[in-house]
Fold this protein.
Amino acid sequence: MFSGLLIAVPWVGVAGAETLRLATYNVELSRKGPGLLLRDIARGDAQAEAAAEVIARVAPDVLLLNGIDYDLHLMTIEAFAARVAAKGHELPYRHAARPNRGWASGLDLDGDGRLGGPGDAHGWGRFAGEGGMAVLSRYPLKGLRDLSGLVWGEQDWAQLPVKNGQPFPSADARAVQRLSSVGHWVIEADVGRRALSLMVFHATPPVFDGPEDRNGKRNHDEIMLWRHLLDGRFEGGVNRPFAILGDANLDPMDGEGMKSAIQGLLGDKRLQDPRPGSAGGEAAADPEHEGSPGLDTVDWPGEGEGGPGNLRVDYVLPSSDLEVLGAGVYWPAPGQSGHDLAARASRHRLVWVDVGW
């Protein structure tokens, strides 16, 4: 059964195109309460307008949006997609479902001794629907598998937090805590003569916890879920060809977190890493970092400003049987057209990969 809404707006496209552009973009379009983002979009919010313009310029065929507030009838997603269309790029098919962010658990999941806080939701959030995900597509979407309800503590491969030899924060919490901090979906885009399986997600940041490393371990396991799915640990598997799209919140070289998770995913022979880059990332390099700055996808404050610096955290990873024709990060260098636009839209940058179809 579908746990969210699949909406198909009539549109006539070109089936069987030779090139298919896949993209992921954390637009950071989240507000402090339900309905506020929809209000802001209706008012012509400058950030939302900039994000819509970035998408229209890149013109993806299939796009995963992260960090956009969800509502039951998809009014916010519809309003934002309409702004993208107004700028010249229509993505008439979309899917969104209630994220785990802000989904109240009724238990103390963050171990602070209090109930009902943002950290007690299945994914950190101040209200139901905060910072969700959505897939926008030129092509019909079908065959949803929603893995967002998997209980973290029920996975025999999980690296679960422990404090003083006991489950952290409690055995009761472990029995209900979902693995996905936002969501994990597998959904197919019906692209002409065959379908593309989209494995989409948004993992928790591996920080903001204590020595039990709750968020670090959860981030690791959210990324590892895809490899276990490909290994056949879950009934149904994944049809080829496929692509993983999302915000892993983990850089393979720099910043905090358990690097083995993303390094293993990038090195998995069933996938390929097109290594999309940008001139803007190169120009904004953090000198203390080891990784290539041209591959970075987010412009965070540096260590001297209390942040981790720029990192590569957003990924589009096609399956090994797809031909990669091009890839990039929409991050123009200072002085280039679009540099200021990208900065207004989000700290994250849109990542795209072209595959032969």
